[in-house]
Design a protein that fits this description.
145 residues, alpha+beta, Signal recognition particle alu RNA binding heterodimer, srp9/1, two-stranded antiparallel sheet, 4 helices, 8 strands
Length: 145
């Protein structure tokens, strides 16, 4: 599983040694060297290697954005396939949690099965979007109303 790195702890105009980056993010020095091989720019002609803080921030944010998956309307994120997918035959089950958000708006989970791998997939929604859900999916069952 990919680690989430807090890019806000980096000082943008500071030059970091590789060991400082490793201590800052609690990773091994080899991880930082692997980042350099992946494209983290270093200051040329200086040893020990230095990395500018703004370059670290850009690199880690680019790494994070590669993992992000944008969902279209009616799509789920499958944690096994790691892709945006649709429910099998567009059939879903609505499960009300019994909790309310905001001004008494009921919260529910849309449950389906991944059409690629057959894994259970979930999408969280609320009553404000119920008409959109009814138009997008074939609802087979409603629990906890």
């Amino acid at each position: 599983m990919a680690k989430k790195y807090n890019t806000r702890i980096i000082k943008l105009y500071y030059a970091y040694l590789l060991i400082e980056i490793a201590k800052l993010y609690k990773v091994h020095i080899r991880t930082v060297r692997a980042w350099i091989k992946e494209g983290l720019p270093i200051v040329e002609g200086i040893y020990p290697y230095l990395v500018i803080g703004s370059n670290i921030k850009e690199f880690l944010e680019a790494k994070k954005s590669k993992r992000k998956v944008k969902l279209q309307a009616g799509q789920f994120y499958c944690t096994k396939c790691k892709t945006a997918t649709n429910a099998l035959n567009n059939q879903v089950k609505l499960v009300y949690s019994g909790k309310t958000i905001g001004k008494g708006i009921k919260d529910f989970t849309i449950k389906g099965i991944c059409e690629i791998c057959g894994t259970k997939i979930n999408l969280f929604s609320n009553e404000n979007k119920i008409n959109e859900v009814k138009q997008t999916f074939v609802i087979t069952e409603i629990q906890g109303v």
